[in-house]
Amino acid sequence: MGSVSEFFQHFLNGLTLGGIYALIALGYTMVYGILKFINFAHGDILMVGAYIGLFIFDFLRGDKPLSAWWFVAFMIAMLCSMVFCGLLGMFIEKVAYKPLRKATRLAPLLSAIGVSFVLSNLAAWLFGTQSRKLEYPFDNTPIVIGSGSNAVSITPHQILILVASALMMLILKLFVDKSRMGKAMRATSLDQDTAKLMGIKSDHVISLTFAIGSALAACGGMLIALDFKVYATMGTMVGLKAFVAAVVGGIGNISGAMLGGLLLGLLETFGVALLGIPQGYKDAIAFGVLILILLFKPDGLLGKNEKEKV
Amino acid sequence: MKKAMILVLIMLLAVPSIVLAGGASESAAKTVKVGFIGPMTGDNANYGVLCNQAVKLAFDEINAAGGIDGIQIELITEDSEGTVEKGLSSIEKLSSSDKIVALVGPVFTGVSFAVGERCQDEGLVMITPSATHKDITAIGNCVFRTVASDGLQGEVAGTYFAQELGYKNIAVLYAKNDYSQGLYEGMKASFEACGGKVSVVETCQVGDKDFKTQLTKIKAASPDAIYIPDYTAEMAQILEQASQLGMKIPFISGDGFSNPDIYNLAGDFCNGVVYIGPTQVEQSTAYVDFVNKYDATYGVKPDSFATNAYDAAYIVAQALKSTYEATGKFERAAVRDAVAATKDFAGVAGMINFAENGDLVACQGVYRVNGTVPEYLGAYTVENGQLKKVN
């Protein structure tokens, strides 16, 4: 750990890695907030979203060289992918989770793990196991600040990740806190049966929750795939990390997911950079932190008491 | 009672065979026995069968041409099924009851480790056509191979980086597995023997996607180059993210880079990478003749290990011949020495020489990527710590 610029570079690396975790953690935490249910298939819906987006984007851009059209094509691809995954999420909920709603708490959890395996194996079977490249729809030349050995660089993609996750957190928060539908979600979250008595169609609310969560996953999947490539198990590790981030921040809490994600990204980076933990073991840091937080603050950093979660 | 009966039976069966075998080698023998061990049945039978056929083809040719001064070579094949247990009982039979004077095989690395120890104890020369682990020949002076050692790649890499590219200090980013770590250690040993310094060593796991932390640390140390002996998925991420960090340091790699998938994943980021990979085999007429003859005899084409096995069989025959002509008999120690003395043997796979430790003196190809096309810079090997360009 030498110069100030190296420190700053590590900070930027950690922050943007954290942005990726935050982006996915938002989906986890929203579904949990409403249903008190961890959708372990979230990471795999993200993978499906990345594949769908990749295919549409490659189809739209064809052989044309990089231009503004690529960005438009990327946006269209993302929109289609979000709609598709939203529907997929609703379908999965109807088929795999709804029939188990009255069963023990463990049953839907196991069902979710099953869905996760089905999706990733299906993708490996249909699309093969090799990684595919999702081209950047913009010029990703790094922006270099300073010069020589003091230079610090950040790519437009890294900035996009940070902006996207902050923006999504904000929109999601406004939606849940201010909109009528958000109110229905919160009511369903507090007490499904009472909400039903008040005329809230809780089945619809739950469907919508899954649709939004899965659409978020698709969006996150495409943004991550730009850097990490598209492959059948792309959602597994990053999904697990995002889950850790959501728990660290206080699962069910939307701002907490953002905080947890950024914190985890920085911890992983500085654990290696400052403490000299070999990079090969950085995952141990992520899960070590999870254990520590759960020991001292079982509700997570921003977790409130049980009843007010959303 | 039953046990005693069985024991007696075994003794009755075993004694005559020992006497016969012993008698055969002492009198003016009409045959000389060479063993082969390889998986002939089971999941990996294809490797063993292909090699065995090659050895058979070689000995049939030699016998048809009069054998070793009139003495026929008898090939005794034992099936290891690719397991250490079967391999050990095979060598037990071949060595004690068949009294072979040389062994071609085993085919697999794991079996070769176990069988090699036995051969060493028995003073029996063994030539494996396919066991690549670098420590196989470290068993002892009876173990040889006609296949390049994994250790060679790292050695050529380190020497080439230091002597040809003139690097003084390099960084390494390797994955935590046998392949990647083995290449790193081999490269480091020879690079440092040439006076170079590995200044930063960073690791990753296979499957990692984010390498910015390691790269940032490497960047701060500003080495001459970065060695990445990894798989394509990791190398593609490393190359792209290095460019994102504004790094201009050249990358050097290993044979993992010879997989063309790297160009789909990393595209132009591959430009300028230098890597050590397989040599481009020249298709000699001897090689083409061998492939045609093999194909005509067995209806399949030989793989590279079978080609090595064919050469191994001929080296054994040559050693038997020189031993017999010098001493009038086939003593194991003399046969071993004759194999070790093999010099510039013109095999179908190319020129064959053994290093001091029994490794094949082989070479490695060096490539430099121009855009997304690898350019062949030639074949190199290392002799006495000095890089040597072959051909």
What's the arrangement of secondary structure elements?
The complex is a heterodimer of chains A (310) and B (391).
Chain A: H1 4-35, H2 42-61, H3 68-97, H4 106-127, E1 143-145, E2 152-154, H5 156-178, H6 180-190, H7 192-197, H8 202-228, H9 234-249, H10 254-273, H11 282-296
Antiparallel strand pairs in A: 1-2
Chain B: H1 2-26, E1 31-38, H2 45-64, E2 72-79, H3 84-97, E3 102-104, H4 109-122, E4 125-128, E5 143-145, H5 150-164, E6 169-175, H6 178-193, E7 197-204, H7 212-221, E8 225-228, H8 232-244, E9 251-253, H9 261-266, E10 274-277, H10 285-298, H11 304-327, H12 332-340, E11 345-347, E12 350-352, E13 364-370, E14 373-383, E15 386-390
Parallel strand pairs in B: 1-2, 1-3, 3-4, 4-5, 6-7, 6-8, 8-9, 9-10
Antiparallel strand pairs in B: 10-13, 11-12, 13-14, 14-15
Helix pairs in contact in B: 2-11, 3-4, 5-6, 11-12
List low-pLDDT spans of chain B. Answer: 16-28
The shape of chain B is elongated
Q: What would you call the structural class of chain A?
A: mainly alpha
The end-to-end span of chain A amounts to: 41 Å
The mean pLDDT of chain A is 86
What is the overall number of helices of chain B? 12
Largest sheet of chain A: 2 strands, antiparallel
From the coordinates shown, what is the CATH architecture of chain A?
Orthogonal Bundle
- One letter per element, helices H and strands E, the order of chain A comes to HHHHEEHHHHHHH
Tally of DSSP helical segments of chain A: 11
CATH topology of chain A: ABC transporter involved in vitamin B12 uptake, BtuC
Computed Rg of chain A: 20 Å
Report on the biggest sheet of chain B. 8 strands, mixed
What name does the CATH topology of the largest domain in chain B carry?
Rossmann fold
Strand segment count of chain A? 2
